[in-house]
Amino acid sequence: MHYPFADIGELPAAPIGDMTGMDAPEHTRFRKLLMGKFTVRRMRQLTARAEQITAEYLDTMERRGGPVDLVTEFAQPIPALMICELLGVPTGDRAMFQDWTMQLTSHVIDQQAQADAMNAFGEYMYKLVLAKRANPTDDVLSELTGSDLTDEELTGVSSFLLAAGLETTANMIAFGTYALLRNPDQFAALRDDPSLAPRAVEELMRYLTVAQTTLKTALEDVELHGKVIKAGQTVVMSIEAANRDPLRFPDPDALDLQRKATGHLGFGHGIHQCLGQQLARVEMQVALPALVTRFPDLRLSVPAENVPLRTGMNIYGVHSLPVTWGEA
User: What domains can be seen in the chain, in order of their start residue?
Assistant: First the structure.
């Protein structure tokens, strides 16, 4: 694969376990093993735990009082701890695990500190794989030790699940809150009717599209709407444009939680469609209505134009989201 931009030379091979950089048959091998671990039924079983984790962080926010950074105090910890649940990270290690994830997604620490955190995380996950092989427990990582994946592949898959399941969902929770605060009528709609949560999540996925583009390289000549894409050519597709297509979504630039936004491409499409989309849905459907009902007068504590947006990054969103509540 190559980028159709400036010549940056040959791209390095995808890291071990990174399914976004794989094609069949290697991709098929990994996906078949993982698909059964991310069923709708299994993810729904995690709902109670998501509710518990969400309530704990809301309790902490309420005790401290505002203003707080919603990214670090709410949006990041929830998916991080849910990934811990999924992988079977021991309870005593979760604070350390969370600290690494904060460093890996931070925009204020230096590259060396992030590299150190990545190395420490990789070493930890490798040891955890060995521990699960020796003493399996009731979690996805233990189940995968019964497959033909090597220790290195299991470590890579675990790192991939962290990266894929943390940054995207954390940004959707934080950026979704920002979008609701910028659209007070929609904030009020969810606050007054939390049962809107499933529809609200789909609409926010469509409206925000935090993963904005994807690349595909043709393996053979393909004709599409009269245009021939030759073998070896790479096409950049705007998921954001597709999700704002007026032929598919009337008044697409409006955020409307009543909209039936099924068919959006926020989770991708085809064989590379997001494997953890059901887990992401559970987390967002729990976190967003819980937040707006706990703090019905939630508001930005800085002018909206001062909220630092993640421009120029693969996953769009906010670097931080200062919010407060209560008396002005």
Answer: 21-209+275-324 (1.10.630.10)
